[in-house]
Amino acid sequence: MSEQHAVLHAPTYTLVNNQSGDSWELPVISGAMGPDVIDIRRLYAETGCFTFDPGYTSTASCESAITYIDGEKGILLHRGYSIEQLAAESDYLEVCYLLLNGELPDAGQKEEFVEGITYHTMLHEKLNQLFQGFPRDSHPMAIMCGVVGGLSAFYHDSLDIHDPNHRKLAIYRLIAKMPTIAACAYNYEQGQPFIYPRNNLGFAENFLHMMFATPCEDYEVSPTVARAMDRILILHADHEQNASTSTVRLAGSSMANPFACIAAGIASLWGPAHGGANEAVLNMLGEIGTKDQIPGFIRRAKDKNDPFRLMGFGHRVYKNYDPRAAILRESCHEVLEELGVENEPLLELAMELERIALSDDYFLERKLFPNVDFYSGIIYRAMGIPVSMFTMIFAMARVVGWIAQWNEMIQDPALKIGRPRQLFTGSQRSEFVPMEQRGKS
Ligand code: CMC
């Protein structure tokens, strides 16, 4: 990997105030790939104006060398490596190393990294009591937000964000403990005892073991299923400056500790427009119920007066097939075949929905293809993972992306606290009226 730094060009954009005739030269910066950016950092100081871009559709919020997406062409690269190659030839922990360190590990580095993660998978016993405080019917994402934020209270030895050793320790702990926290949240909901991690198992295998074994019986993990889970983790590992990653960066820009920042990212991921979409897909399929209902739901999705959207379709960045969805589609069919559940009615329904939406002009014109959440939900369902766990698995995989981006940001000498401005539309000035003069409604 050759890391290239952003290059400042001779100014090529001129901003003109048509009323006063004043004009300003705006510098343009080129990255290694992708659109140039217009540098507006001095805009307010020089013009007295802010820019307005709610939803950040035209705003690059930071400089990053980790992940590159070309949404028009359907390309996703981590540190220059294509997601297709990583999904086919690598494994999740190797991808974690790559995202964090900028290059694939050699054999010794990989061994050391895997061992480092493996020996941090257990949770502090006191954390068990934190789980017990949640109602049994809590959403597992609520538990995950609370427990991950709570880790800050247990690890004072890794909270100095300016110390590279503290940061490394916090990074290892977060990657290692997320599957244990996810499995504990599941077992807690089921009323079953927590299953401790097993150091002789691979990362994905260990997660499935903690989910499905009981103290009375081991769980034999099928290699196809473990491989599919590992692949799901790779595909969700990072996705540049999405809502949850930007949340982690914004939280971290105030120098908050990494556990608190990751808890903020988990909260953002929970929403149905982001990581919660995989759960929403299965809920939607349940609501659709039978194939003959599909046209009615498609009609609703196209109706501007109906807030209903086809969950698992569309993406802010990909205006072409999401490359992760293409890989998962393949995995999905493999898993369904291995588990012998091809004829499951809900899964048949999903395949029919995919077929109809992919041939409908509304979806084709707007480039609304099935996204990664469409297929991941179906695979989880086939693996016997309950719907409420889906977003937690996304969080478990994405933690490496969040923490790699946080680590990159903390080391950036240009780091400033994130502080957006606003277009104020409220009252200009109100006179305070004492309560006795306000009447009663
Ligand atoms: N069903 C029906 N119409 C849709 C959908 C959908 N799922 N998604 C977008 N549209 C329409 C939308 O109504 C608009 O139509 P028009 O141009 O006629 O007004 C057009 O497509 C563009 O939509 P948009 O809202 O401007 O697009 P966006 O980039 O703001 O939204 C999105 C992206 C992912 C939030 C949206 O496509 C969506 O809500 N999808 C369903 C939820 C989902 O699957 N989310 C997972 C995203 S992938 C994983 C992740 O990143 O977390």
* Counted beta strands: 8
Tell me the number of helical segments per DSSP (H or I, 4 or more residues long): 18
Give, in spatial order, the strands making up the sheet with the most strands.
Answer: 1-4-5
General form: globular
Radius of gyration equals 24 Å
User: What does the average pLDDT come to?
Assistant: 93
Distance between the termini: 67 Å
The hetero molecules present are: carboxymethyl coenzyme *A
What does this structure look like?
With 441 residues, the protein is mainly α. Helix content is 49%, strand content 6%. The protein is built from 18 helices and eight strands. It has helices at 43-47, 83-89, 92-101, 107-118, 125-132, 140-150, 164-190, 203-212, 223-235, 243-252, 258-269, 277-288, 294-302, 323-339, 345-357, 361-365, 372-383, 390-410, and strands at residues 7-8, 13-16, 23-26, 28-30, 37-38, 67-70, 75-78, 81-82. The protein has a three-stranded antiparallel sheet, with no helix packed on it. The protein has a three-stranded antiparallel sheet with strand order 6-7-8. A hairpin with a 6-residue loop joins strand 2 and strand 3. It is globular and about 80 Å long. 37% of the residues are buried. The mean pLDDT is 93. Residues 242, 273-275, 277, 301, 309-316, 366, 368, 371-373 line the site of carboxymethyl coenzyme *A.
